[in-house]
Predict the structure.
Amino acid sequence: MSYYERIRELTKNVPVSLVDFSLPRDLARTPTQASSNFITNKEQGDWAENLVTRAINETSKNFVAVKYGKSDDLIAGDEGFDNFYQEFQNELDTIGKRPDLLIFKKSDFDENLGYDISQIPHNKLTDYVKKAVAGIEVRSSAFLIDRYEAAMQIRTEKFSQLALQTRDKILAEYSDLLEQSNRSKYITVLQSITAETLSVTDFKVPGWSSSERLVELNNLFKELKRSIKEIQKRDFLSITPKVEDIKVVYKWIETFNVPHFYFQVFFDKVYGISFEQILQIISDPDKEGVVFSVEADTKNQNKTTIKINSKSGVQIAYKVDEPEHKSVRKEMSRGRLLFYVTFEGGTAYLDVNNLREILEIKQNDF
């Protein structure tokens, strides 16, 4: 069974409520105006892509990373952007979404085409692209993942203690009020709350207010509810494929039969996961809320995004040296000014064994 055939079988298990592969992709509207935040995110994404490219090309003896993804310095509002965007949409329907990078064996690398083939029309690249050993979509995140996880652990411990202390206080000091028949159900709720069940506990705050003690009790239930909500917030940083991209990534795999991967670049580490594993994860409803969530991404025009726990993937780089950054002024048509941040430099230190493992490269080949 070919790689594409394996992926095709996996798509049959993905819930149609999440991605319906039988329907054509939704048509996108051409953006009319870019924001400073959008350009900064784009600059960060370009930096992350360059970081991974340099890390591979400076480390590997037998493989080459080549820029492939459709990109341009044009943004919404620039002259020529509408034509660029429409060409991009047409290409999505023809070959699917190009991954940002292609990995070639050096023996298959075409020096005449060079390290950047992103501007070459797809119909001139078909045979060459099929020689690639992997396509990599590079995503970026403005976090230090180690610092984030340490902070989330502290937060969870803090609110777990507060929730359990509040539960105990209610049962110890207000049991006489709860023992009345119209309130007794809350005793069962409280007794079911343990350190193990905090992550799944839910209840409605009563709303009692007919006496001073009932107001105190009601406020304690509010405090308990707030603590539980804090505990139940997503506590992992994620690898973030957009739902709308799943179909066009599949289309690209169908066209070229080249294994596809997502690499998530943080400012201290890099994690990677295969598209194959992404489909396996989102096809398992028991993993939702534990390993992945589906959310509207406020940093990306509220597009629905699958957020998969980074630790479900493989650590590609065990350390990242942060880049230099500076502010840039851009003057748009009609005199509108945008100020954004650019990034330059930095180094990713690859975990070569993990990189070989995820890309299924033989141990001595890299």
